[in-house]
Design a protein that fits this description.
By secondary structure, the chain is of the alpha+beta class. The chain has three helices and nine strands.
Length: about 160
């Protein structure tokens, strides 16, 4: 079995993250330039919330799908949001197109019931597990990922 690994970049989320960084930097610089008073300067809580927002936004700028001997693994960005699927539990796999209203990110869609993991575009691979659960993994090369998963579950 040949290991598989592919990373899809979410360029829109990258632009949004950079825009938020510029906005937050401007807010910090403006707060530091105010004349000294009781309410001037930066606030630790506001700064911490800004850092948390940037941390979460940056984690959704890429989605990596990889396959090893036992698992199909996906991770967003630097890996704070990750998931693995046992290859021996995958019943079927097929390349699909997501509707525009399914959105991006990590979502639970209720009709049809499935989990969606996506950073950009509408192409995805739908995997159905032996327990009936359905997952869609966004990718910019759906046929390639579908083929890699099929080869892995058949070997």
């Amino acid at each position: 079995m040949t290991p598989y690994k592919h990373t899809q970049i979410g360029y829109l989320m990258l632009v949004v993250t950079l825009a938020a960084l510029v906005l937050f930097a401007w807010a910090q610089i403006t707060a530091r330039l105010e004349p000294p008073s009781v309410d001037s300067g930066t606030n630790l809580l506001v700064t911490a919330i800004m850092a948390l927002i940037l941390f979460i936004l940056a984690s959704f700028t890429a989605l990596t799908a990889s396959i090893d001997e036992n698992y199909l693994r996906i991770k967003f960005g630097y890996g704070i949001f990750a998931r693995k699927f046992a290859l021996n539990q995958i019943a079927s796999v097929q390349a699909v197109k997501n509707h525009w209203y399914y959105g991006w990110g990590i979502r639970l869609w209720l009709w049809p019931k499935m989990w969606i993991y996506n950073v950009s575009g509408f192409d995805a691979v739908e995997i159905t597990m032996k327990n009936g659960k359905v997952y869609r993994i966004g990718t910019d090369v759906p046929e390639e990922l579908e083929t890699a998963i099929k080869q892995s579950i058949n070997s």
